[in-house]
Automatic annotation (TrEMBL):
It catalyses: (S)-4-amino-5-oxopentanoate = 5-aminolevulinate. The gene is hemL. This is Glutamate-1-semialdehyde 2,1-aminomutase. Coiled coil: none annotated. Belongs to the class-III pyridoxal-phosphate-dependent aminotransferase family. HemL subfamily. GO terms for biological process: protoporphyrinogen IX biosynthetic process. PANTHER family: GLUTAMATE-1-SEMIALDEHYDE 2,1-AMINOMUTASE (PTHR43713), GLUTAMATE-1-SEMIALDEHYDE 2,1-AMINOMUTASE 2 (PTHR43713:SF1). Homodimer. The lineage of its organism: Bacteria, Bacillati, Bacillota, Clostridia, Eubacteriales. It comes from Sulfobacillus thermosulfidooxidans (strain DSM 9293 / VKM B-1269 / AT-1).
Amino acid sequence: MAYEVGEKSQAWFERATRVIPGGVNSPARSFRAVGGDPPVVMARGMGPYFEDVDGRRYIDYLAAFGPLVLGHANSHVVQAIKDHVDEGTLWGTPAPKEIELAETLVASIEGLEQVRFTSTGTEAVMSAIRLARAFTGRPVVVKFEGAYHGHSDGMLVKAGSGASTVGTQDSLGVPWGVVKDVISLPYNDIAILEETLAKIGDQVACVLAEPIVGNMGIVPPKDGYLQQMKELTHKAGALLIFDEVITAYRFHYGSAASLLGVIPDLYALGKIIGGGLPAGAYGGRYDVMQYVSPLGGMFQAGTLAGNPLSSVAGLATLEVLQREDPYQRMAELAKILEENILEIAQEFDQPITINRVGSAFTVFFQENPVYDYTTAKMSDPVKFARFHRLMLERGIYLAPSRFEAWFVSAAHTRQEIDKTLEACRESFRELSR
Ligand code: PLP
């Protein structure tokens, strides 16, 4: 391919590969699915832009895989971190900022009556599942193909995101003892869920879903699907867990659950609530949360959980989101991208489908509707890889996987959108040659 990452990126990446497997600390950062390594090594982020170690600038639609809803280095968030860092970075005791963040989450997420912090989304989901098993006394987790719920053992059964991209959907090292209690069903298919719960519902601890899937690309639920999911789950005596690690505070100031009118028993949270620093959380119904140690017998812990700097960054991010309410503007910009990309692709005879919810969307390189993992996988990997490179060459940074979203942040303006559309036009023209 014509495009080559800069010399300094290459040199850094060479160093990385000697000491870090594959040179990356998360497989989703690798460029293996889009024409190969090395990936671009970034030096800094500012607003809607990235700058790499060679001094090249990119408009960023990765948003660090979701957390950066305000863009890079938002001044309010940065100042809040600076103001707090002199007090120390970790105490291992209860502290005001984690309590304030917990109060903020409880006040803004419907059905979140109590919350416990973790350091990552992975732990949040893992803990919510353990809690559901503790509460119900049952072993089985029902989840959906192509959704990504972090990298705990059981969640790597038919997972999406980075796991699907590198083809480790059933990771080595996950024992059968774990896998046998995880059932993965096609998303958006209520009949299969009904059938499954009719057969083995009395063994099911929880049904776990992203209410709007973000990890096989953006895939919204069909009308009525989540409501029926909730009814069937409760009929089986199981708990409904929504993994809102991506979706909470992405589409409005609160959970996707309340936008969609279906409130789960438990939530898993992450990404935006840490404002770009490590954070996760799980919580929900008060009676269920009473099972969590030290109140109850479900053990879960974390040296770094509720980290003061993460709490401060999360609080500052949520303050800006509440005060400035950028959601409609973000969605309008994303809509401009969606409509124009569809038009450009048509002009150059390139079949695509776009799924968009608010400020997040995915361009699938195929023309049929995408509503589950099977239809998402029809997106042409070779075309996507070429498109990714062409866009990179033109200064647009997209996630290096056909199963990820483009995230428009509150820092993007019409100017970045117009530049992006110019790059799209040239890239689709190239693709059609
Ligand atoms: N759940 C969802 C929906 C996610 O998208 C992710 C990460 O991408 C996770 C859980 C895991 O979060 P983390 O990477 O913070 O462990």
